[in-house]
Amino acid sequence: MYLEGARWCSNTHKLVDSNPKELFSNLPMMLWNPVVDRVKPETGFYMTPLYKVVSRSGTLSTTGHSTNFV
Q1: Does any domain span residue 68?
Q2: How far is it, in rounded angstroms, from Cα 31 to Cα 8?
């Protein structure tokens, strides 16, 4: 996966501003552990789209999202 306009800081384990003139940065391998019935926090989260490839291209589906959209 790639980040656009941000990068992952391996020291602080947070998203930080991207380096100058860096359009995309790699997102390291992560283990996503979903939690059932989790209470969503009111603040402190940024809802961001996730695409399978950097180009964002794909076929528009009946839901209005690209088939490249996760």
Answers
A1: yes
A2: 15
Question: Is-contact 17 25, C-beta < 8 A?
Answer: no
Mean pLDDT of 40-50: 77
Closest residue by Cα to residue 70 from 6, 26, 61, 18: 61
In contact, 68 and 57? CB cutoff 8 Å: yes
Query: Would 19 be classed as within a structural domain?
Result: yes
Residue pLDDT, tens place only, 4-30:
888 899 999 888 998 999 888 888 888
Domain holding 23, by residue range, is: 1-29+46-70
Against a cut of 0.70, is the pTM above it?
no
Count of domains for the chain: 1
| Dist. CA 14–CA 43, nearest whole Å | 16
